[in-house]
């Protein structure tokens, strides 16, 4: 029997990154998700997932070419739940230092910065490709999609840039990469986003999808 | 806490894993999905599938395998073997692979590294290098060590990094299969020389070899095949022992 009341989630496809795994994670936890590049699928969705891996500028260019920037901003203004992952987290911010300064979606105030190649006279490997732990900052994780994740749990990271939010209150988790402490997840009103890949972080990661969906009445 | 990765490597032929695997409780030791699941349950941080299929149908069977692995597996995995074009890589990405590993194709056409990095990001591109000591110099070899090239390993790795490799998978042919330990000398030289993660491969025979490679070199991950497949080194034991030696691992 088809449940017509089932909430619809659109995974935004702007041609960067591994969307298959995101869709699989949605299927596994029971989220009714489609992958789409169409504005109408964003307008008709009850919630959005913005994934992606790769370069910020190219991602924003692709979103612009697909005429999706205003559509996403409008959905955010309507308070639709938005879940950003990896590059999708970074796109939500104001601007990036990557290749000069690139403009982001500006839904969360802050800047995207590159990991420094050197720190205290020793080199830092970029990209970070690793399991690294996430820990609490000021906000507690109860009542967030991280409710089933314990402090210092390992998550899988792949990135060369990190977000530097202007407001500490938007920070949900922090992570330390080789001496650099940075924000690895945020939550702000209807927006939740992670630098790590929950869909690649075992069942702990999948619980984040499930709890995001549950908290937003999507399943 | 940034952790060191443990990576089992599986050889795949016609969509099935080969080289006997003797796990207890495996219904079908040749099924890549079941094996991948088992390894993930044991705490493997990542998996590498190396396609050794020689038939024309290889691409289709590989894509199908990648899709079924991606459906079941909640840890990252890399696909290597026979990737020579951007189109090959894109098909694997769309099927759910997190990274691809290129070896001979990169040596024959170094621009491929650049093209792949530009199209999919550096994090997607692992350059695998097989090296062997010849008259005191580390030389890049192809075809599993059978074919020597004119490239010195250090120079080639530097070039691969500059072209956009996101990670180096370094296999010492002198150590591979010996079970006498990783080539810590060379791995140390390479990790000091470059600014991207390095995966050590070749020579793992016992737990002490993993401890040694993480203590003596700057590698980010260690890869092995037979010691994991035959249950000689159970991954949970390995990780416990690494932790006991203050090597950061995900438990």
Automatic annotation (TrEMBL), chain A:
Parts of the chain that traverse the membrane: none
The role this protein plays is: IGPS catalyzes the conversion of PRFAR and glutamine to IGP, AICAR and glutamate. The HisH subunit catalyzes the hydrolysis of glutamine to glutamate and ammonia as part of the synthesis of IGP and AICAR. The resulting ammonia molecule is channeled to the active site of HisF.
Please verify whether the record's keywords include Lipid metabolism.
no
- Residues of the active site are 86 (nucleophile), 197, 199
This protein's pathway reads: Amino-acid biosynthesis; L-histidine biosynthesis; L-histidine from 5-phospho-alpha-D-ribose 1-diphosphate: step 5/9
Pfam families per the record? GATase
Q: What is this protein called?
A: Imidazole glycerol phosphate synthase subunit HisH
Annotated signal sequence is none
Q: Where in the cell is it found?
A: Cytoplasm
Which one GO biological process term can you cite for this protein?
A: L-histidine biosynthetic process
Q: Name one GO molecular function term.
A: imidazoleglycerol-phosphate synthase activity
Instruction: Tell me the InterPro entries matching this sequence.
Output: Class_I_gatase-like, GATASE, Imidazole-glycPsynth_HisH
- PROSITE patterns for the chain: GATASE_TYPE_1 (PS51273)
By which gene is this protein encoded? hisH
From TrEMBL, chain B:
For the biological process aspect of GO, one term held by this record is: L-histidine biosynthetic process
- Any idea of its EC number? 4.3.2.10
Query: What is the first-listed, main subcellular location in coarse terms?
Result: cytoplasm
| Swiss-Prot/TrEMBL keywords | Amino-acid biosynthesis, Cytoplasm, Histidine biosynthesis, Lyase
Q: Is Amino-acid biosynthesis one of the keywords?
A: yes
CDD domains in UniProt? HisF
**InterPro entries from the UniProt entry:** Aldolase_TIM, His_biosynth, HisF, IGPS_HisA/HisF, RibuloseP-bd_barrel
UniProt pathway annotation? Amino-acid biosynthesis; L-histidine biosynthesis; L-histidine from 5-phospho-alpha-D-ribose 1-diphosphate: step 5/9
Task: Offer a single GO CC term for the protein.
Answer: cytoplasm
Reaction(s) catalysed (UniProt annotation): 5-[(5-phospho-1-deoxy-D-ribulos-1-ylimino)methylamino]-1-(5-phospho-beta-D-ribosyl)imidazole-4-carboxamide + L-glutamine = D-erythro-1-(imidazol-4-yl)glycerol 3-phosphate + 5-amino-1-(5-phospho-beta-D-ribosyl)imidazole-4-carboxamide + L-glutamate + H(+)
Identify which residues the record assigns to the active site: 11, 130
Q: Which GO terms describe its molecular function?
A: imidazoleglycerol-phosphate synthase activity; lyase activity
Location in the cell: Cytoplasm
Q: Which domain of life is it from?
A: Bacteria
Enzyme group, top EC level?
lyase
Q: Does the keyword Lipid metabolism apply?
A: no
Q: Which family does it belong to?
A: Belongs to the HisA/HisF family.
Function summary: IGPS catalyzes the conversion of PRFAR and glutamine to IGP, AICAR and glutamate. The HisF subunit catalyzes the cyclization activity that produces IGP and AICAR from PRFAR using the ammonia provided by the HisH subunit.
Q: What's the subunit arrangement here?
A: Heterodimer of HisH and HisF.
What's the protein name?
Answer: Imidazole glycerol phosphate synthase subunit HisF
Species: Pedobacter caeni
Q: Which gene encodes it?
A: hisF
